[in-house]
Amino acid sequence: MAQLGGTPVLILREGSERTRGRDAQSRNILAAKTVANAVRSTLGPKGMDKMLVDSMGDVVITNDGATILKEMDIEHPAAKMMVEIAKTQDEEVGDGTTTAVVIAGELLKRAEDLLEQEVHPTLIATGYRLAADKAYEILKGIAFDVKPDDIDTLKKIAMTSMTGKGAGVVRELLTDLAVDAVKTIAEKGAKKIDIDQVKLEKKMGGSTEDTTLIKGMIIDKERVHPGMPKSVKDARIALINSALEIEKTEVDAKIEITAPEQLKSFLEEEERMLKEMVEKVETSGANVLFCQKGIDDLAQHYLSKRGILAARRVKESDMKKLASATGGKILTSLEEVRSEDLGNAGLVEERKIGGEEMIFVEDCKNPKAVSILLRGGTEHVVDELERGMNDALRVVGVALEDGKYVAGGGAGEIELALKLRDYAASVGGREQLAIQAFADAIEVIPRSLAENAGLDPIDMLVALRSAHEKGEKTAGLDVFKGEPTDMLKAGVIEPLRVKTQAISSGTESATMILRIDDVIAASAKTPPAGGGMPPGGGYPGMEEEY
User: Fold this and answer.
1) What is the pLDDT of residue 245?
2) CATH number at residue 178
3) Co-location of 50 and 92 in the same domain
4) Smaller CB count within 10 Å for the chain: N or C?
């Protein structure tokens, strides 16, 4: 509302809310801190789980930061930015989502103290950026190299990522599977590893120990005809994305049949065409067929008579993975089925898993796509197993791509805080206050690990700091013994990118929220007075509920 010569001028819609200055900053910081506190208790091996119930009554039990924030129905715009941090971290590295959010929340909490001391938000933002740049440099200095053939280190990285998650109970088996899967699909000398080439297939039933890695693919489909063989050894696989059906004409056409003989020959011709299609598949030498579209009933009969195992309506993503696993080509029409385009597998077999038929394509020679069959007693167990497995696969992939890892258990954060405090002293002006605040904020990770394990956070921080001051760069918090321990010897290690990405996302979001000094929220739109639909009126098909 503005005044012009005594006449009020309405600028914003009536009911809009505007918060300015310190008030706006406080509200945004509070919203971000609340989100960070919500996930903070899930951090570390002794972190607790959250049970999330949506409006439909569906339950999710997890301690994966990204999943928790995705399932929470968040309204506040600043809080939504915290959800974005977790999303980015999950997409980039797969792990460290809680770390990134907690760091962002702590950076804002420390910034609030500086704002009260009349330090300008822009100066705080500049100091935080300087500290983040220095942090990347320090982390690179304390990182270790990992070679693609160093299986032991890769297993430790996967194990660290799974610790404290629902999958932690059988993590030895799962880490072996995760490392094996990533090593199988990794191309020699490739800069990027496509983790999507590992298909996670969930099936309830059995126990978590029944989880297996298939050097090939699992297709959640069954044979199209009971007369087809259930198992085919030395399979030659045709992958076709067109239908084994008689196609309808492109244009509207009418066929007039005036005599019974014409109908007979018309049906015979249809039959001959379908038979020809099946013969083309057989001539190529294929004994297994995966079709992305439909297969006619008659074609199914001919395929079963020739002993060819076939599945229809296979998902496009599965077709691509089948091509990568078997070395076959996806063909757009049956005209081009040639022997050299077929994929190979030692065994293709239909098995009953958890009461449902599935087709296993196994013993592929050099598969560039593999499957992991996840088993568990209940749906929630299998879902949490999938989240843990996904994180493990991603961190192993990232470690192989970058070839660098750092000590976990808060060791990196304590070393960072120590070095950043020295760096702050060398930077003049008020920015050094922000760099010191950044150093204090980073220590929230070891502090949270101690709190979640029921240890005294102050005692633990003091013990860790003194260990690092003595030059023990890899000393982190062993939450089981409750004392500083060499994390390399304990096998608690993480890819370097988990740390750098968490600091980068956390810093960027914190500085963005800090620089906001005015929040203008539009009011909810209300229907115009006197407008709207007449009572009892409405669109056809609309029904009133009481």
Assistant:
1) 79
2) 3.30.260.10
3) yes
4) C
State whether 357 and 232 are in the same domain: yes
Q: Tens digits of per-residue pLDDT, 139-168?
A: 999 999 988 888 889 888 888 888 766 555
Is 197 contained in some domain?
yes
**Does the structure show a pLDDT above 80 at 20?**
no
Q: Please give the mean pLDDT across all residues of the chain.
A: 84
Exposed, middle or buried: residue 395 (CB in 10 Å: 0-12, 13-18, 19+)? buried
Q: What is the pLDDT of residue 533?
A: 46
Total H helices, total E strands in the chain: 17, 21
Q: What are phi and psi of 251, to 5 degrees?
A: -100, 160
User: Is residue 102 a contact partner of residue 36, using CB atoms and an 8 Å limit?
Assistant: yes
210, 313: one domain: no
The pLDDT tens digits of the residues spanning 361-408 come to 988 888 888 899 888 888 888 888 888 888 888 888 888 888 899 998
Domain assignment present for residue 512? The answer is yes
452 — phi, psi (to 5°)? -70, -20
Q: Which two tokens stand for residue 154?
A: 């890769």
Same domain, 304 and 355: yes
Q: How many domains are there within the chain?
A: 3
Domain boundaries, position 391 = 147-215+370-402
Q: What percent of the chain has pLDDT over 90?
A: 19
Q: Which residues are catalytic?
A: 64, 97-98, 391
